[in-house]
Design brief:
Elements lengths: L1 E5 L9 H15 L3 E7 L17 E6 L2 E6 L9 H20 L6 E5 L4 H13 L3 E5 L5 H5 L7 H16 L2 E4 L2 H9 L7 E3 L16 H6 L6 E6 L9 H12 L6 E6 L5 H11 L4 E4 L7 H5 L4 E5 L13 H8 L3 E4 L3 H9 L2 E3 L5 H12 L2 H15 L4 H19 L1
Parallel strand pairs: 1-2, 1-5, 2-4, 5-6, 6-7, 7-8, 9-10, 9-12, 10-11, 12-13, 13-14
Antiparallel strand pairs: 3-4
Helix pairs in contact: 1-15, 2-3, 8-13, 11-14
Length: 411
C-alpha cells in the first residue's frame, strides 16, 4: 500500500505532531508499505528554517525509508493569528499542488491541529479519486476560541462550516482522543466512521536513565528538587501558573532546594522569560528547544514533570502527548489538565492531578512529593508499566489497519 501523508510538521522538528507522524510512518515502512510525506521546511516553533534546510519551492529527501517532499510556505513564528493562518494557507496550496504529482497513492491522509492541511488532503483525494482520511489532533477552530485568539464572527462561522465539511467528506476520521470522537458524534458525524488512535511513546527512545550529571551541573541543578515543563510555550499552556508557583516556592523557608525547568519555545516564551526576570525568580531555568535526540537528556533531570493547560472546557478533551513520554521515562507527573487525560493519570496511577491555573495547588504537590521518595518510586514503577500499553509501535499498527480497510473498500 502507498500512503500519501500531508503534514506541516515533521522531523527534525520535535513537537508532538512531528514525532507522532514520523514514528507512525517509520513503522509503516518497516511493515513493507510505501510512505510519501508532503511537508514544509522545518521551522517550528521559532519560525526560523533549521540549519541544513532552505525554504525552497520543492525539495526531496529520504528519512528512515520515508520519501519526504518539502515545499515552500510562508514561514512565521508561532505567534500572531493572521500570520499563522497565512502560513497554514500557503502550505495548503503548495503542499496540495505537490501532492498531485505523487504517483498512485492508495490513501491520502491529512493531519491537524489546524485543518487547512486536511483541505489539501481532501482536494488531492478527490482529484486522484482516492479516499481521504482526516487525522484529528485538535478541535480547530474551537481551540483558537478557547485561548482567545479569535472571537465569534462570520469568519469563525465559515471556518466551522469548513470543519464539518471535512469531517463529512473523510472516508475515515482518526481521532487522538475518545472525547473528540464523542464531540463529533454529538455534531452528527456517524460514530462508525471515527476511529481512535491515542498518542503514545516510542519506548525504544524514551526509557529510564540516570540524571545527566554534566547537564545537571551546567544548569546549576545539583542537589535540587527539579520540577520541569517540556514543550511548547504557547497561549494554551498558561505557563504563568508555573511562574506563580516558582514565586511561592522561592519565598518558602527551604525554597532554595527547588528549581523549575522550562524547556521549549513558543509564542509566550519571550514574555515568560521577561516576567521571570522582572519578578526576580532565581529558581526558574529556561532552556530553548533542543534536537529530538537530546530531549531525553533533559527529561532525565526531572524529579517530577509538570503538564499544564488553561482551565477551559475544550482542554478536558485533549491528551497531551508528553504524558506518555513521562511514562516511558518513569517520571512522576503533576497533571494540571482536567478531563480525559486526568483520568489516565489517575487510572494508571502515574502521578497526581491538580487544578489548572492554581499555583498554590501545584506548590503543594511539589513540596509533598519532594519529601516522599517512596511515593515517587511508586509513580515511576507505575509509569514504566503503563508505557507498555501506549507503545507507539502498536498504535501505528492499529492505525495502519484502519488505513488498509479504507483503501480496500475504495479498490
Amino acid at each position: 500500500m502507498h500512503i500519501l501523508f500531508l503534514t506541516d510538521n515533521f522531523p527534525p522538528e520535535v513537537n508532538a505532531p512531528a514525532s507522532r507522524t514520523h514514528e507512525h510512518c517509520r513503522q509503516w515502512v518497516r511493515a513493507g508499505h510505501r510512505v510519501t510525506v508532503v511537508t514544509c521546511a522545518p521551522n517550528f516553533p521559532q519560525g526560523k528554517v533549521f540549519d541544513g534546510y532552505r525554504n525552497k519551492l520543492y525539495q526531496r529527501e529520504r528519512i528512515d525509508g520515508i520519501e519526504v517532499i518539502r515545499v515552500w510556505s510562508y514561514i512565521t513564528a508561532n505567534e500572531g493569528f493572521s500570520r499563522r493562518v497565512l502560513d497554514y494557507v500557503s502550505f495548503m496550496l503548495a503542499g496540495g499542488l505537490a501532492a498531485l504529482f505523487v504517483r498512485r497513492p492508495d490513501v491520502v491522509v491529512g493531519t491537524s491541529p489546524q485543518f487547512f492541511t486536511a483541505v489539501a488532503a481532501w482536494f488531492v483525494g478527490m482529484m486522484k479519486r482516492r479516499p481521504y482520511v482526516f487525522e484529528l489532533r485538535d478541535l480547530w477552530p474551537e481551540s483558537i476560541k478557547a485561548v482567545g485568539a479569535m472571537k465569534e464572527s462570520r469568519a469563525l462561522d465559515a471556518l466551522e462550516q469548513l470543519e464539518m465539511f471535512l469531517y463529512r467528506k473523510a472516508a475515515r476520521v482518526i481521532s487522538v482522543t475518545h472525547s473528540f470522537r464523542e464531540n463529533l458524534q454529538r455534531r452528527g458525524i456517524p460514530g462508525d466512521k471515527i476511529g481512535v488512535i491515542t498518542n503514545g511513546v516510542d519506548i525504544a527512545q524514551f526509557t529510564p536513565r540516570p540524571k545527566d550529571e554534566a547537564l545537571e551541573a551546567s544548569l546549576g541543578l545539583q542537589g535540587k528538587f527539579v520540577a520541569g515543563y517540556v514543550g511548547t510555550h504557547g497561549m494554551a499552556h498558561a505557563l504563568e501558573t508555573l511562574l506563580d508557583a516558582a514565586g511561592k516556592l522561592q519565598q518558602a523557608p527551604d525554597g532554595d532546594r527547588y528549581r523549575l525547568l522550562l524547556l521549549g519555545d513558543g509564542a509566550r516564551k519571550a514574555a515568560l522569560v521577561a516576567e521571570a526576570q522582572s519578578r526576580g525568580l532565581r529558581n526558574v531555568v529556561f532552556v530553548d528547544s533542543v534536537p529530538k535526540d537530546q530531549v531525553a537528556r533533559y527529561w532525565s533531570l526531572l524529579d517530577v514533570s509538570v503538564i499544564h493547560l488553561r482551565k477551559t472546557e475544550l482542554f478536558t478533551t485533549v491528551i497531551p502527548s508528553k504524558l506518555f513520554e513521562c511514562m516511558g521515562m518513569g517520571i512522576p507527573v503533576l497533571h494540571g489538565v482536567e478531563g480525559e487525560s486526568a483520568g489516565i493519570v489517575q487510572r494508571e496511577d502515574v502521578g497526581r492531578v491538580f487544578e489548572p491555573e492554581n499555583a498554590e495547588a501545584l506548590v503543594k504537590e511539589i513540596v509533598e512529593l519532594s519529601t516522599a521518595p517512596e511515593r515517587l518510586a511508586h509513580y515511576r514503577a507505575k509509569g514504566l508499566d503503563a508505557a507498555k500499553r501506549y507503545d507507539r509501535g502498536a498504535l501505528a499498527t492499529a492505525m495502519l489497519k484502519q488505513l488498509q480497510q479504507v483503501a480496500s473498500k475504495a479498490a
